[in-house]
Amino acid sequence: MKRILSGIKPTGAPHLGNYFGMMKPAIELQSQGEAYYFIADYHALTTVRDPQAMRDNTRGVALDFLACGLDPEKATIFRQSDVPEHTELAWILSCVTPMPMLENCHAYKDHVAKGKVPDHGLFAYPVLMAADILIYDSNIVPVGRDQKQHVEVTRDLASVMNRLYGKKEPLFVMPEASILPQVATVIGLDGQKMSKSYNNTVPLFEAEKPLRKKIMSIVTDSTPVEAPKDPANSSIVALYKLFASAADVEKMEADFRAGGQGYGVFKQRLFDALWEYFRPFREMREQLAADPGYVDSVLRAGAAKARAVAAKTMDRVRLATGLR
Ligand code: AMP
Ligand code: TRP
């Protein structure tokens, strides 16, 4: 049975990039193996410094994930910090991690390029992520493209550990990223990658009015209403493609090329389709939210299951490294 594992940071409301890049693939995989999905609160500490926001986001992200179809009967869902073994393994891995490997990582490099002073948490972020993955002997890691490099670092660290400590038997399983090409990078309202840090997101469970406003604010060029428009370079079409049927996409592309309709009309069509797509999830979310203890109880049960697995791996790692 394959082990599947992924994480999402509680840094704000999950958006279309999170959903199509990671949550939807993760939900689809939950019936194809033994799945572990967690809320990466340790990782979020690199940016979230408001304790109440951390608590609220952690529950919020878990609720959104459950509403979208994550099934606690099939997958183990938990909060990262409920399994402190992750940080113990991260330390052990960090002792064999060459600094240049981390200096080469995008998130750190971008931070430094912007002239900002990175803290150690940001620098060591990929090592903790490697620990998250390796501690569950994960085979498959469904993520968006921005996480590809981190999974590569994980594989490198697994190799180093296996070389050092796994002569008789490999200490760690070699994980593989699973990145769906069509949704590897979902673009945001401004045409850049959709990201909570760019303020260009479409949150999955935004209320109707602000959601419509966000969709209407998608950046477009100044082609006049009558003129034909290019569907290939349009953020409206790119977002519509994520969830509209092939026939509906073709129709929108044809209408773009025909001219005679302004971008506002297409945005409205996009909004309507989006609102309908998430309707069942919205209803499910309302139901789940009606029981205030539900999310906490799911996270608690998940933590117990995850911790048992992580503890076993750590016994093995402590023995192999001579800590025991
Ligand atoms: P984060 O919110 O950074 O924890 O991201 C959670 C998951 O969503 C990761 O697997 C990311 O790769 C994925 N993700 C975030 N933004 C996007 C995007 N714009 N397109 C595709 N996947 C994304
Ligand atoms: N770094 C990931 C992100 O920002 C979140 C994450 C933490 C993760 N640990 C993980 C994803 C382990 C997959 C596997 O999206």
Secondary structure elements and their pairing?
Elements: E1 3-8, H1 16-29, E2 34-39, H2 41-44, H3 51-67, E3 75-79, H4 85-94, H5 99-103, H6 106-113, H7 120-134, E4 140-142, H8 148-165, E5 176-178, H9 208-216, H10 235-243, H11 246-258, H12 263-277, H13 279-289, H14 294-321
Parallel strand pairs: 1-2, 2-3, 4-5
Helix pairs in contact: 3-13, 4-7, 4-14, 7-8, 9-12, 10-12
This protein binds adenosine monophosphate (AMP) and tryptophan.
Q: What share of residues is helical?
A: 40-55%
Question: Could you give the order of strands across the largest sheet?
Answer: 1-2-3
Largest sheet: 3 strands, parallel
Care to count the β-strands? 5
Which class of secondary structure composition applies to the elements? mainly alpha
CATH architecture of the largest domain: 3-Layer(aba) Sandwich
- What CATH calls the topology of the largest domain is Rossmann fold
Explain what the structure shows:
The protein is mainly α. The chain is built from 14 helices and five strands. The chain has helices at 16-29, 41-44, 51-67, 85-94, 99-103, 106-113, 120-134, 148-165, 208-216, 235-243, 246-258, 263-277, 279-289, 294-321, and strands spanning 3-8, 34-39, 75-79, 140-142, 176-178. The strands form two sheets. Strands 1-2-3 form a three-stranded parallel sheet. Strands 4-5 form a two-stranded parallel ribbon. The longest helix has 28 residues, at 294-321. Bound molecules: adenosine monophosphate (AMP) and tryptophan. Tryptophan binds next to strand 1 and helix 7.
